[in-house]
Amino acid sequence: MRIYHLSAECYPIAKVGGLADVVGALPKYQNQAGQNAAVVMPFYNRKFVHENTFDMVFQGTTLLGTRRIYFEILKETTDKLGFELFMIKIPGLLDRENVYSYPDEKDQFLAFQICFLDWINWSGQTPDLVHCHDHHTGLVPFLMYHSSLYKRLAQIPTIFTIHNGQYHGAFGWDRLNLLPEIDFYKTGLLEWAGGINPLASAVKCSWRYTTVSPNYLHELTINSNGLEYLFYLEGRKGYGIINGIDTDVWNSATDPMVPAKYSLTTVAKGKQKNKELLCSRFNLSADKPLIVFIGRLVVEKGADVLPDAIERSIQQHGDNVNFLILGTGDTETEMALQKLKDFHPGNCAVFIGYDESLAHHIYAGADFLLMPSRVEPCGLNQLYAIRYGTIPVVRSTGGLSDTVIDFGDEGGYGIRFNHVSVADITHSINRAVELYADTKKMQQLRKHMMSLDFSWGRSAKEYNDLYETLIPKL
């Protein structure tokens, strides 16, 4: 089965969020299961491109409104990522360093989608399925089925995966002229709230749409930035499939970024050694429970309540708890955390920025990972923590509800709370501190977590099973 994954991000080429992790792993595991999956993404002038070799496999011109643009399809020559990687390069439009935030961003992704369709159309390809990811690729299903230019592609199934339903990529009707020739009787399939909405269009036009967890599929009917009724109407087409993690990368026994390697049988000694090294670096005590936060310091992640919650917890537990924060984001939150570190240098450490190697070390050395997210479609951090025997402390939302069971319930291994509030977070921290004192229970939970399967192998099978329902049997 020939599958094209179409995405704005893909790890390790260009990563802004979890979208990149999914697109960088899912095709690899699908290929290991016998599929023929490839990734198509925009060209970015980044380290990966300079350090690897690409062949130009196609070149052409197309129209973006009245503007004639030249494009190239570049293929990475070695398939070193476990799948074929294609990048679409457009001089002056898709040849920049950053993924987002350019003033002509909508033109960039619109051109990306058109060039992809022109390439597979003109080169005579007929993939078995096109899998689109987030609003940057949301117009592809509509154009495949309702543009006269792509009639040959109209029978190809499409799946659209929503990684974050808060972002729609919407724009006004004044830009309709930028689209290729379309059936104007079908423009209602582009429309939502008075404008052209790529995410809404993809939900309407794709054969199936998926979300990155079952619970998030339900939450979109309650909170999706104005698309709630659409998700209610199109609910029969929706499937929730939990993201996986790349267990080749996230393996505490082989991870090159983990100083002290460990496995299921050596988790106690391994985590303690990593914790000691981590605490030594940040002037913390390895004898106390270490509670960490890794991620963007933004409201969506609940980071705005972290300073007050940490302050109250230190007041309650005195010198018997440590916190380590790794992240960057809102300036006021960063400053509040830095001030907290200055007031409690022996109990709180803060690293403003992001360091992939340090993140891996923290997962391996921490006792608890705190995720007070307001929105978390799936979440990967809690899966990394589980894989490394670090107990997740999470708010019950989105994929966090699907992947973390409270240790007070049968088969549980984490700590869950309901509200993004100082009271709920500090109560959960109290539970974590009490649990830490029960060494035997901690070891049982760690081993239980590390034996769970949240791999992409499991998730890839669910996607492949969904594909099979859409593709006619020969």
UniProtKB/TrEMBL annotation:
Residues 283-442 form the Glycosyl transferase family domain. ADP-alpha-D-glucose binds at K15. Pathway: Glycan biosynthesis; glycogen biosynthesis. One of its GO terms (molecular function) is alpha-1,4-glucan glucosyltransferase (ADP-glucose donor) activity. It is an enzyme of class 2 (transferase). Keywords: Glycogen biosynthesis, Glycosyltransferase, Transferase. The keyword Glycosyltransferase applies. It comes from the Bacteria. Its EC number is 2.4.1.21. Residues 2-228 form the Starch synthase catalytic domain. Gene3D superfamilies: Glycogen Phosphorylase B. GO terms for biological process: glycogen biosynthetic process. InterPro entries: Glyco_trans_1, GS/SS, Starch_synth_cat_dom. It catalyses: [(1->4)-alpha-D-glucosyl](n) + ADP-alpha-D-glucose = [(1->4)-alpha-D-glucosyl](n+1) + ADP + H(+). NCBIfam families: glgA. Synthesizes alpha-1,4-glucan chains using ADP-glucose. Belongs to the glycosyltransferase 1 family. Bacterial/plant glycogen synthase subfamily. This is Glycogen synthase. It comes from Mucilaginibacter pedocola. The gene is glgA.
